[in-house]
Amino acid sequence: MPDAVVIYLTRLPSHGRETAIALRSARATRNVPIVFVEGKGEPLEKTKAKVPDAIYVTSEELGNALSRFSKIM
To answer: Domains of the chain by range and CATH?
Structure first.
């Protein structure tokens, strides 16, 4: 099981959003943290509405966000 899943919203945000929804719907991955990186405008707002419990960060903030979940860092 991964410590977290990172999804970039800068390319095909709808695919990332659907991936996150699938992860949330499966019992085995329901509690895995999802971190969305970048994104703006309507795609970001849609994603926040559909996956409100995810973490949303910029590329610069990604390392700090992941350090909260990684057993190695």
So the answer is: 5-67 (3.40.50.2300)
Q: Give pLDDT tens digits for 6-25.
A: 999 998 999 999 999 999 99
The answer to whether the beta carbons of residues 5 and 34 sit under 8 Å apart is yes
> What element of type H or E holds 36?
strand 34-37
pTM beyond 0.85, yes or no? yes
CA distances from 65 to 1, 58, 71 (A): 18, 10, 13
The answer to whether 52 and 21 have CB atoms below 8 angstroms apart is no
Contacts of 43 (CB under 8 A, 6+ apart): 9, 13, 14, 17
How many other C-beta atoms can be found within 10 angstroms of the C-beta atom of residue 4?
A: 14
